[in-house]
Amino acid sequence: MEMGYCELRNRLQIACVLGAIISLSSPVTYGAKILVVPIDGSHWINMKILIEELKNHGHNITALYSSKAWYIKESPDLYQSITVQLQGGTTKFDDSRGIQHFLDKLLTTLRHGLTPWAFILVQNEMISFLREWHLWAGAFITRIFEDEKLLKQLEETNFDLVLTDPALGIGSMLAHYLKAPLVYNVRWITRGEAHFLFAPSPLSYIPLLGSHLTDKMNFLQRVQNVLQHFLELFISEFFIHPIYNEACRRYLGTDIDIKTVLLQADVWLMRVDFVFEFPRPTMPNIVYIGGFQCKSPKPLPVGLERFVQTSGKYGIIVMSLGSLVNSLPLDITMKIAEAFAQVPQKVIWRHNGKIPPNIANNTLLAKWIPQNDLLGHPKTQAFVAHGGTNGIYEAIYHGVPVVGLPLFYDQFDNLIRLKVRGAAKIVDAATMQSLDLLQALNEVINNASYRVNMQKLSSLHRDQLESPMRRAVFWIEYVARHRGAAHLRSEFYRLPWYTYYCVDVLALLLSVFLIAAMLIVLILKRFCSVVGKKKQKTQ
Amino acid sequence: MEMGYCELRNRLQIACVLGAIISLSSPVTYGAKILVVPIDGSHWINMKILIEELKNHGHNITALYSSKAWYIKESPDLYQSITVQLQGGTTKFDDSRGIQHFLDKLLTTLRHGLTPWAFILVQNEMISFLREWHLWAGAFITRIFEDEKLLKQLEETNFDLVLTDPALGIGSMLAHYLKAPLVYNVRWITRGEAHFLFAPSPLSYIPLLGSHLTDKMNFLQRVQNVLQHFLELFISEFFIHPIYNEACRRYLGTDIDIKTVLLQADVWLMRVDFVFEFPRPTMPNIVYIGGFQCKSPKPLPVGLERFVQTSGKYGIIVMSLGSLVNSLPLDITMKIAEAFAQVPQKVIWRHNGKIPPNIANNTLLAKWIPQNDLLGHPKTQAFVAHGGTNGIYEAIYHGVPVVGLPLFYDQFDNLIRLKVRGAAKIVDAATMQSLDLLQALNEVINNASYRVNMQKLSSLHRDQLESPMRRAVFWIEYVARHRGAAHLRSEFYRLPWYTYYCVDVLALLLSVFLIAAMLIVLILKRFCSVVGKKKQKTQ
């Protein structure tokens, strides 16, 4: 105690002020050891962009993924790779064939529109596809947790944090095992849209993803929304979560389930921006980074720029169905080609399948396109897109109105969010005729309101104190710096549902009220009868 | 249409990019016309700090307040003043006498601790004090809306936004009338803590302010929390809101009530930080600016610095009961003086009332102290405070542990938030003996954990991407720039409560379920009886 409190205090304060200065100066250049457990496919695209930025900030990244990964490749200058060898042959998740097969089936089912029967078939398809995916994740988890050497290696590295996409439960379980702080790059969890797990989500104005609803619902739509919520709970409870719960019990502890594990994240970097998503309740440890992958356009390759310039005053249309889908069935692509043939614009179409024979001179097919640079090109008039979030945010960022051809999952819902703001038109890919697409294109390009509305979204989206990417990196570093962010996690996850909703309290209050009411009635009855008897007596 | 879409687009895009650049560069130097409708007293202290910063950013401020305001004075270099002359003599809200009288009554009532009877008396005191305050506001509103010249002047100024503290409903009603975008500097609304109006607030883990509870409640505490919630609703519904609702109907429209008016704010700058407040659900248009008034300490005046230095290795204790309360009753201040006399530290005590005769040599009394500079002084060991949020945030910012002497409203609750984090001790001012305070002081100063915990809160609080003040100014400018922030306001406020909670949907689903169950039972009964008859026949 000889040192004196003041001196001790001074030192602490200096350390603290230094900490604040370090955190305010950008970038924070200290090498955190980060274990990334990514998800393959389109999820990897934005995770990789985040990894690149973390690398730029001097952090050491280790990525853990399947040795047969489809998109994720070794990249020693960006991250160390730990690959996990799965038993058995290739699966449908190792390349595009699985999703292509799924899409073909879907489009065939929906050929006559979304009839009730088609709805049931589609739901069934989706559930079994999802279940297979989570079963694959279950096998992956087993492989990791049965590999003592790997576990030891991970434990000894003593990671500062785990960064994962919790659409599969792998990374969360690993973070729990390693007792490491946990950050999500997230829009989906194992049970559906991520907010629904832990932010209050009144079903009266928050539509489920997949419902095709908006935040303004009539009575029947609300009934649909509630029913779909129960359906989702049912599916996750009986088809998805048991896969993880068994693994949790086996490898993490008998009283641990996947919900508890998922909720242990310190910070949720949510790929959402309220320019796009309907406003809804949120939580203090959700950080919104929607559009973090967007950036200013680079000049186009010379040949492409020349093609774009030939469009003259009409400009160009850009079309892409994203990274997962290789191609649509030929009859549909022919209808698209027919529509494109009739617009005065030039068209650049990212296309991998069979070339439609009726392709016109104004249309350029390419196996890959510099999508961001094209969307940021001043000649671009419209974006024909499937409605994946990566593309949607790029369209918002660059202010390009959209003609949507949604295929599955959240794509219709994503597009609906642009549609209600007057920035997109939606065409049903399964049932459309070429005229539908042509009309939508003409409407979106020639009716100035679409562009004006999209530009308004763009200017709101760009008007932020710091870029979403800067925010993402800050919060990852924050969690590493403070070994977590426990003070931002609410108490609710400790409570059983009847406590959370105060059902027990209301039951007590109701009982007290009823007993009191009964007592009063009894007393009044007794009083009346006594008075009655007295009256009889006096009579 | 000769201009061509591309060119139009180019111009729009340039405008949009310029907008983004302007918003990223700091400060934004364009003069928005801002109408500030402040609240007098301690609320004014932080509103004034915000006004100073807005002035620094080049905005033109007009402040509207009572000509008899207690704290708010004319300040032409900071803001234009519009003063409203209230009819009648001075009221208890024009100086410190009202609150002093209220405090004296409270302390007398609580002299024997918080007995059930004392609780009822205190509640009664609080409600009538609150009601008088809102009646005063009602008179203020009448005065404004009956003054056609004033209204015309306000309308013609065409303000870019209204900035107000909605603890009284004046500013919100005015913004509604002027159809101006609306920003709140807020912790309280007319009905209690502001979150409870429009962010989902599960009573199972979110304690009401005034409940003295934390986010970890047992069953009985939850019962208390629920009952208090109903009490608050009852009070606001029958004693507070009718005052405003009548004014709304008279001046804004027959279908407008105060709740609708309050909810029209575009952005809520909430004087809360989750280092201090328990984590809880929030909304997209809440921006947390807790501690925005904190700043680095300036050097002390020479005489004061000399006194501080005489404290040697023991350091100093700072005491202040905030700006509203002039003094405690003499018997209480004597106990405080007695405790201070027994500590080895020097004490600096902001004190305005009768000087306690037993004041010791180590204690310096002052009518005003540079509180922020003293709390930021390296010699400061502890802060004896009443628990108002301004002081609490300064203590957090500077990492000084607190001994709390809470007096009324949220002060006990504020201190409890520090206490559960091991950064404060609370002493009951009404019932304490000098030994209680002495022990609390010794504990907080000599047990290092209090300082360490407070330093931890401080380092978390200071570790932000931008200062809370920067955030406040950005969002005010954002709302002015975009003429509101409608895209951040959720749909819930349009819904009646039974729709919001899906009571109608659940009633339908339950009915369908019951009817189906009844049908099945009926069919089974019929079936059984038919089978039974057949059996009888065959027998």
Automatic annotation (TrEMBL), chains A, B:
GO CC, one annotated term: membrane
Gene Ontology molecular-function annotations: UDP-glycosyltransferase activity
Membrane-spanning segments: 497-524
PROSITE patterns cross-referenced by the UniProt entry: UDPGT (PS00375)
Coiled-coil region(s): none
Keyword Membrane: yes
Subcellular location: Membrane
A matching Pfam family: UDPGT
Superkingdom: Eukaryota
Keywords, comma-separated and alphabetical: Glycosyltransferase, Membrane, Transferase, Transmembrane, Transmembrane helix
PANTHER family in the cross-refs: EG:EG0003.4 PROTEIN-RELATED (PTHR48043), UDP GLUCURONOSYLTRANSFERASE 5 FAMILY, POLYPEPTIDE F1-RELATED (PTHR48043:SF63)
Homology family: Belongs to the UDP-glycosyltransferase family.
Designated name of the protein: Uncharacterized protein
